[in-house]
Amino acid sequence: MKRYKKAGRVFWCHLAETAVLGALLLCVGAVRGHRVCTRHDITRIPDTSFQSYAAPAAADANGTGQKIVCLTFDDGPSSTTPLVLETLRQKQVPATFFVMAADNNRKYLPLIQTETDNGHQIALHTASHEYKKIYQSPESYWQDITELLQAISPYTDTEKIRYLRFPGGSTNTVSRKYGGSDIMKRLKAQAQEKGYRYIDWNVCAEDAAGGHPSAEEIYRNILREAQNQTVCVVLMHDTAATKNTAKALPDVIDWFREQGYRFCTVEQMDRSCTQSPPNS
After folding, report:
1. Is the peptide bond before 77 cis (omega within 30 degrees of 0)?
2. 269: which residues sit within 8 A by CB, 6+ positions away?
3. Up-side HSE of residue 94: CA atoms within 13 Å toward CB?
4. Longest C-alpha distance within the chain, in Å?
5. Pairing between strand 12-18 and 22-28?
6. Residue 160 neighbours by CB distance under 10 Å
7. 107 φ, ψ to 5°?
8. Where are the alpha helices (DSSP H) in 61-155?
């Protein structure tokens, strides 16, 4: 695959909701890293507080001003996941997989065992990813999480899973029409009470957007948002519909490596990025 030209002027996407037409994706100028990722990942401004605790660790690592990147994949596993895992194996790079257990990916759940065996981090993204169901109430959300934990328990040690990503992100607004204006505030508080850490992103691949973006577009989207950031948490997807993400991944990894980033899982970043990458 040819290396792609860097994007020029940046435009950021926001979601405008109307009573008649529902959600429309609009593009307006905004702050770097604060953008809508897809029509279902509709966080307007993701919570990027992870930058505040990761940046000092990155700056202090070996006294070299080291930069950190976490590659994260949502909504898998699927038929795309083996392609992603092979690239990660070849490049010796760790990643974090925010997994699901919906009807359309249940047969791929054994791949979570491979992810675990290869040293990658498994994190939670709900079983169903159905907004109407999971955001109806806090009880509905945690019931869905329980279903996910039960489904993946044969393939990984669920007792060790302490990280999650809310579908739509922790600051999404679509949840309000199902569970009220304070549903996310309540869920975030409960997550912390239960010992979970939730994390959004500050770099978005836009790989699950409509129109099936090409590998080149996905690559440019990531570079555009990652430039000039010391700590990057990259949102990608390993679904059956995002095989172009797997195609772009080798060049994405090469670019971050050339820019001097160290690759970490989310948990490793939380621990000052001191652990080693997974074995081949």
Report:
1. yes
2. 50, 54, 57, 68, 70, 231, 233
3. 27
4. 55
5. antiparallel
6. 10
7. -70, -15
8. 81-91, 111-117, 131-134, 138-152
Tokens of 192: 């912390």
Ramachandran quadrant class, 46 (left: phi over 0; alpha: psi -120 to 50; beta: rest): beta
Q: Do residues 44 and 34 touch, judged by C-beta distance below 8 A?
A: yes
Q: What is the pLDDT of residues 205-258, one digit of tens each?
A: 999 877 789 999 999 999 999 998 999 999 999 999 999 999 999 999 999 999
Percent of the chain with pLDDT over 90: 70
- With beta carbons less than 8 A apart as the criterion, state whether 88 and 238 touch: no
**For the chain, what is the mean pLDDT?**
84
The values of phi and psi at residue 262, to 5°, are: -105, 135
Helix (H, G, I), strand (E, B) or coil at 74: strand
CA dihedral 6, 55, 93, 83 (to 10 degrees): -60
Please give the full DSSP string across 194-210, using - where no structure is assigned. TT-EE---SEE--TTST
| Residue owning tokens 């992603």 | 84
pLDDT at residue number 212: 87
**3-class SS of residue 261:** strand
Who contacts 65 (Cβ-Cβ below 8 Å, separation ≥6)? 58, 59
Q: What are phi and psi of 164, to 5 degrees?
A: -150, 160
HSE-up of residue 74 (Cα within 13 Å, Cβ side): 26
Reported as a single tens digit per residue, the pLDDT across 127-185 is: 999 999 999 999 999 999 999 999 999 999 999 999 999 999 999 999 999 999 999 99
The yes-or-no verdict on residue 34 having pLDDT over 90 is: no
Distances (CA, A) of 167 to 87, 102, 172: 26, 13, 8
The answer to whether 215 and 2 have CB atoms below 8 angstroms apart is no
